[in-house]
Amino acid sequence: MYPHVLFEIWNEPKCSWPIVKSYAENVIDLIRTNSPNNIIIVGTPTYSQRVDTASLDPIAKSNIAYTLHYYAATHKGTQRNQTLTAINNGLPVFITEYGTVDALGAGEVDVNSSIAWWNLADENKISYVNWGVFPSDATPPGSAAFIAGTTNLTINDPTNWTPSGKLVNQKYLSTVQYTNNFGCTA
Predict the structure, then answer these.
(1) How many Å apart are CA 41 and CA 112, to the nearest integer?
(2) What is this structure's pTM?
(3) Distances (CA, A) of 94 to 7, 64, 112, 149
(4) Domain Glycoside hydrolase family: where (predicted)?
(5) Contact, 73 vs 110, CB < 8 A?
């Protein structure tokens, strides 16, 4: 019905893959009655961190991707290896939430781990979305991109960016986001 809509179902499940899979299959069938071709992104066990588990028994439906969440200062080599297992098993992964700090949204920005994650995602053509625009009850200041009080009129001023926001901005500005067959980039 709306081809540009991505559906993400079950944010950060805390149960086993068979339970998530059963739920997702039912919800996918309902979504497909109105949106037969949209991409549906399915949460994975352990707060959407175990895409490797889902890769061992994927959902047999079309246009499905699997959610990966990570926080660079907490989730390092082990989770990157689990992600590579999923990729090597052919699982389509979409990083619908990541942060440059720890899993609580606090601490220092982990530049090296952030770069390692971005490299893994870029090398495997995985889309990723940074968590947290403004500090709030749901977004601690460390993981937010902007400091409190930033407005639509001041959002382009780098003095309103947090250390995480500055790092993410540098990354996005340095990444070719689109290439076509004519050699043009945007």
Answers:
(1) 28
(2) 0.90
(3) 12, 10, 21, 31
(4) 2-131
(5) yes
In this structure, the chain runs to a length of 186
**Angle subtended by helix axes 77-88 and 111-123, to nearest 10:** 0
Active site residues: 12, 97
Q: Measure the CA dihedral 56/61/62/63, to 10°.
A: -70
3-state per-residue secondary structure call for the chain: CCCCCCEEECCCCCCCHHHHHHHHHHHHHHHHCCCCCCCEEECCHHHHCCHHHHHCCCCCCCCEEEEEEEECCCCCHHHHHHHHHHHHCCCCEEEEEEECCCCCCCCCCCHHHHHHHHHHHHHCCCCEEECCCCCCCCCCCCCCCECCCCCCCCCCCHHHECHHHHHHHHHHHHCCCCECCCCCEC
- Is residue 185 over pLDDT 60? no
Distance CA 161, CA 163 (A): 7
What is the spatial distance between Cα 100 and Cα 163, in angstroms, rounded to a whole number? 9
